[in-house]
Amino acid sequence: MQRISExxxxxxxxxxxxxxxxxxxxxHSQFVALFGEAFKGLEAAGTAxxxxxxxxxxxxxxxxxxxxxxxxxxxxxxxxxxxxREAVRRAGLxxxxxxxxxxxxxxxxxxxxxxAVMSNSLLHHLAEPRVxxxxxxxxxxxxxxxFVMDLIRPDSPExxxxxxxxxxxxxxxxxxxxxxxxxxAAYRLEEVREQLRAAGLAxxxxxxxxxxxxxxSGRLPx
Length: 222
Ligand SMILES: C[S@@+](CC[C@H](N)C(=O)[O-])C[C@H]1O[C@@H](n2cnc3c(N)ncnc32)[C@H](O)[C@@H]1O
Fold this sequence. Notes:
The chain is α/β, with parallel strands linked by helices.
């Protein structure tokens, strides 16, 4: 099945609300658990950049799991950041998580070089996938951990519809629609492998993490 792109930013209020209120506890806790497994000797403290942070659920879970770390999240959609700021406040993590409005690749995060970079579900939104890999390299220190999780494009629209029914049966229609569109816009493993090669990141590990997700992990070249 050919990739069908979807809009980059999720900046409609209703869409952002449906996303922010959805239950992503399974994939987002898996994100943080797999990060911990991938970087067992992770420094006790550091700064992490979350690219396309959305409503900050991943940033919050990360900050709880790694209490010595601070997180800066960047996203181009104010509608998403509004929910993110509220979630960070509710979590009592305003002293460790900052959310910055910025459109990649032009966005400039507060720090020039982070100790780690992560991103969940941004890649499939990007018209130019190299924006993710170049941003990851641009804003992190040599040797820093990189951890990216995203959807894998299924073989057919029917398979995408089946995944929506399996994992978002009770979600609002707008979220089911976005999930379906995201699956159609996602990249195949072989496409991600080629992106990594083109970005000089072929040394990172790429693997399927579930029936609908892949994970890229490893350290940037020194
Ligand atoms: C599917 S959401 C994922 C949000 C969050 N990472 C999570 O896992 O919950 C994708 C996010 O990427 C943002 N985004 C897409 N393209 C972007 C770009 N070029 N620059 C900045 N943010 C972007 C969207 O606005 C949206 O909030």
